[in-house]
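Inputs:
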Amino acid sequence: MPSFDAIIIGTGQAGSPLAGRLTAAGMKVAIIERNLFGGTCVNTGCTPTKTLVASAYAAHLARRAADYGVVLDGPVKIDMKKVKARADAVSGASRDGIGNWLGGMENCTVFRGHARFLDAKRVQVGDEVLTAGKIFINVGGRAILPEIPGLADVPHLTNSTILDLDAVPEHLLILGGSYIGLEFAQIYRRFGAKVTVFEPGPHLIRREDEDISQAVSDILTAEGIDIVVSAVNLAVAKAANGGIAVSHDGSNGLKTVTGSHLLVATGRRPNTDDLDADKAGIALDAHGTIIVDDALKTNVDGIWALGDCNGKGAFTHTAYNDFEIVAANLLDNDPRRVSDRIPVYALYIDPPLGRVGLTETEAKKTGKNILVSTRPMTRVSRAIEKGETQGFMKVVADADSGEILGAALLGTGCDEAVHSLIDVMYAKRPFEQVRRGVHIHPTVSELLPTLLAEFRPA
Ligand SMILES: Cc1cc2nc3c(=O)[nH]c(=O)nc-3n(C[C@H](O)[C@H](O)[C@H](O)COP(=O)(O)OP(=O)(O)OC[C@H]3O[C@@H](n4cnc5c(N)ncnc54)[C@H](O)[C@@H]3O)c2cc1C
Ligand SMILES: NC(=O)c1ccc[n+]([C@@H]2O[C@H](COP(=O)([O-])OP(=O)(O)OC[C@H]3O[C@@H](n4cnc5c(N)ncnc54)[C@H](O)[C@@H]3O)[C@@H](O)[C@H]2O)c1
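Outputs:
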């Protein structure tokens, strides 16, 4: 039975860099991957979607060329085969890079196949049984297929299979109005599809403040995307014309919308159902999430869980930070913790939403004296110059401590601009620090000191 110092299950955003650190520290490591090197982000998540977002932006800008005095003769056409080939190439290069890196890594043995626990020290992959004193689980997650009547009987796409399309759907129906649903909605609308989004909640991206959600909805609606919120009693069926019919109860009674393709974007679940985690005695919650402590240890000594499967984050940067936390504790005598982390993320519609910390609604619930400041992107020079003035920026702070509690920046360049607020929050400095700083003109970031100078009680 091959014996190792450490076994890593999954080559996602935490597993691969961890293999690098552990082997560099002299450990003998086995890493197991059942599918594609790099996991979700590289193959079916961030990388291909942001590549598609870039193609969609190019199409959008080409359609608006005349606004900038640029003459393009004839209508904008999408070569979906080329769009797909570009996304595949970018993903493929990243996947190959990780595969080659792991394959050539000294002291690292790569096993291809599905891993299952036999007990707390042994993992089976194919016919092999591997043993190690330390086991790191980085198995990620996959799309949830909700129990909607008729779903099993109609062809439907997930974030993975939609990437196989090499033609633009005539009418894309999307279940779920959050990250995945909205990014694909705008991508395919800009490629020329008709798009309808069905969201059961009262507003899109339900974790966000309503004013942010409304602004996102306005941006998407202005591009011709149909958005149905409060869509309850959703059901799907084959339509008489060969397409797919989504019916829902709305404020005006039962309605049916027929389209050519259906994307299910209703959340994700951890890949723990086929891991035999119970044989190792690893505790999971009701959703299959692996329960971990603040240093990402499971309830079983010598077993850690990193990335989406531990429910502490659902982003590439949180998975990578999980790697940093585990490596720091194990190798650097540095007690880093998940609770050191400030929630940050972006929604990659165009213009993007950059987020950090609390929403205004959440901030008000803390009972603190809340300050809020907003500024429309129509009052940001750089946005005006770029001809991209949709959205607005909002920051909330604690009036007594001067601490920035959160920000939602929706506008051109805001996925980058938000980082100056993130950095000052990590530095635990008051907002006055940013307010007094001089930023470069003309940038979106240049308006952050002004935004912070205009705080008013919430
Ligand atoms: C469409 C989409 C877009 C996204 N966009 C963004 C974005 O813009 N920014 C962002 O921060 N995040 C984004 N995310 C989220 C991000 O992709 C994930 O949070 C991140 O990839 C999680 O990484 P991970 O390391 O937890 O697992 P994963 O990357 O999912 O890796 C897990 C790996 O484990 C393997 N595996 C699973 N079970 C086993 C087993 N039993 N044996 C062996 N191998 C196994 C899998 O094959 C996989 O390769 C997006 C996600 C999706 C779906
Ligand atoms: N930009 C990014 O960082 C990015 C992009 C894409 C995905 N992701 C990650 O992927 C995860 C999954 O994204 P997601 O958008 O699938 O999930 P989500 O959990 O963010 O949202 C799911 C949405 O589906 C809706 N929903 C639930 N059940 C439904 C049903 N039966 N019919 C219709 N709608 C239903 C919910 O109300 C919710 O709005 C996110 O948590 C995020 O971490 C991140």
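Remarks. The mean pLDDT is 97. The pocket of nicotinamide-adenine-dinucleotide (ligand 2) is lined by residues 146, 148, 175-181, 183, 198-201, 206, 234, 265-268, 314-315, 345-348 (CB under 6 Å).
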